Each structure stands twice: as structure tokens, then as C-alpha cells.
Amino acid sequence: MYSGYASMNFTLAKKYSLITGLRYEKTDIAGAFAESKELNFSGIGYENFLPNLTISRTFKNFRTLKLAYSQRLQRPSLQFINPFNNNSDFVNRTEGNPYLDPEIVHQVEVAYNITFKGFTTFSSVFYKYTDGIIEQILNIDNNGLSVNTFKNIGTNNSVGINTFITKTVNLVTLRTGGNFATYNAKGIVNGVAASRSSYEYNIFLNGEIKISGTFKADFFGFFRSPVRTIQGDNPAFTIYGMGVRKEFKNSSIGITMIEPFNADKFFNSNIETSSFVQQTSFSIPFRSIGVNFRYKFGNVDFKERKSKVKNTDLKQGGDSQGGGNTGTGTQGT
């Protein structure tokens, strides 16, 4: 990938600021296999100009109002483009598509943040238009077996809201938030025009309790609605956990529990078209209880050794074992 960008920042009348920029990207994709050479591919690529514009207004008490427009890429990650035929479930195979184009996302967002009486909140409403949306598509082969692959099927118009709130009360810190967005997709699936309207959302809650100066407890929970596709619903996801730890001068010891009351977690999907219906359910062991011990010595900071490269433009999901794409893909930024 080759890229370059330019950005300008202006301050207007002290309380207004404007940031604008343009990014150019050129991407080339190729793959070569040591044995299955018939899967080799090359000569695939795309180039894009991606503009952005943000206007913000500051107020007293650390309040900020922002209006932004951005255009960005949502690239297919490896599991979407790898042409390997995964037939671990021989009646429900999955294979990637190296000829996928990236999703082109146009987003307009109005955001507002405020700190008031100990509450810190950030909220935004957004409109997002996605061209070339990537979805896991199910088809039935000549032997009556399910074949899952990935395709650019069409467009999606989405309107949504997201929020984040944090508050500290004495020895307790709470953080919560989530997002809600509509799903309005239309396109061509297996040669047939299709459309669907629905919604997606997710909610999270976490916090920390300082029981004493060195004894602390924390907890978290997350819930995500089923992931919508033009063919149906892919699995929802929930998780919660809690833990306690005792801190010493250079070490700590603690107990962590993940879903202590659920030994297994089930994932259900429902795919429905005019020619077939597929309902899938699978489970995995999920409950875990562990003891962890940390000891710090010396002055080495391993965080400095981590790569600073983050592939934030990759569309996630794509391997849900018959459940379809598990990426969220609707959250505003």
C-alpha cells in the first residue's frame, strides 16, 4: 500500500477551529501458494482519494461541539480474501474472495462532549453511506451443501447514535455506553436483487471499586445484538466478568472469573432467502476462573517495544462457523 496525505488546521475567532485534509492511497494485492498454485492471484488493486473536514466550536467548562465529514476505506481483512477452502464442517464450507474491493464509507457526524458535576460524556449522531458493502453470502452448491463466501453486494444507508459516559463516586468508577444504528441495505445477491431494513446495537458497562488502598475489584459486561446481513441474522454476543486483586509494592495477585454461571456459550444464526433457509447453532466452552500473579522488576518498559502500526481500516469478522460475518461495522467514529 502506498499513501500520502496533507492536512491543514485553522483557528477562527478563537473559539472555532477547522481541520481539513486529503489522503491518497494505492493498494496492490497478490497471493502465491507453495503447492496449490491454481489459487495464485495478482494484478488486483485500487486507488482512492479520501477527503475529510471537521469544524469544531469550544465553550466554557470544557464543552465542545463538532461537525465532521469523512470518507474512508474499510478494507477486507485476511479471512475475507484468503481463497483457502475451509471444509472443517464439510456440509458448510467457507472460502475467501481475493477479488473483493474495499468498502467506501461516507460519514457525516455531529458530536458533543461535556463534563458536568463529575459526569464526563461524549455523544454523537451520524449518517453513514457505505458503497460496496462486504457481507458473507451463503449459497447451495450442486450437491446440496452450503458454501459461504464474501462479496461486495451493494450499498447500506445507516443513521445512528453512540455515547460514552463515565462517573467516579467516592471509591467507585463507572463507565458505560454503546451505539445504535439502522441497517438499510440493498444489492445483488446470487444474481437476484435483494434488500433489507433492520437495526444493530451494542452496550457495555465496566468499572472499578477501590475496596482499600491496595485491594481492588473490577467488573465488565458487553452485549451486541445479532449482526444483520441482507440474507439474515448472524450470532449475537454477550460476555461478562469480574475480578479482585491485591496490590503490593512491585507485584499483585488476583482472581478473575469470566461468566462463572455459564459453562458454554451458544451462537445462533438464521439465514433466509427465497430458495432456502439455514438455521445454525454451535457452542463453545466459555466459563473460566483463573488466578493471576504479576511481579515487576527492573526498568524495562515493554510497551515501548510494541508496534505502533494499527490496522484500524480492516473490516473484522468473517469466520462464524456458519453464522456469517461477526463484524459490527456500524459504529460511528
What can be said about this structure in brief?
The protein has 333 residues and is an all-beta fold. 1% of the residues lie in helices and 68% in strands.
What structural keywords apply?
333 residues, mainly beta, Maltoporin, Chain A, 68% strand, disordered C terminus
The CATH architecture would be Beta Barrel
Tell me the helix content: under 10%
Query: Which term fits the overall shape?
Result: globular
> CATH class, please?
Mainly Beta
Please tell me the overall pLDDT.
Answer: 87
Structural class call reads mainly beta
At the fold tier of CATH, the topology name is Maltoporin, Chain A
Number of helices: 1
Describe the largest sheet: 16 strands, mixed
Terminal Cα span: 23 Å
Strand proportion: over 45%
Low-pLDDT regions: 319-333
Give the ordered list of helices and strands.
Answer: EEEEHEEEEEEEEEEEEEEEE
The count of DSSP E runs of length 2 or more, i.e. the number of strands, is 20
CATH homologous group name: TonB-dependent receptor, beta-barrel domain
Provide the fold topology.
Layout: E1 2-12, E2 16-31, E3 41-59, E4 63-76, H1 78-81, E5 85-86, E6 92-95, E7 103-116, E8 119-140, E9 146-169, E10 172-189, E11 192-210, E12 215-224, E13 227-228, E14 232-234, E15 237-247, E16 251-258, E17 264-272, E18 277-285, E19 288-295, E20 314-315
Parallel strand pairs: 4-20, 6-9
Antiparallel strand pairs: 1-2, 2-3, 3-4, 4-7, 5-6, 7-8, 8-9, 9-10, 10-11, 11-12, 12-15, 13-14, 14-17, 15-16, 16-19, 17-18
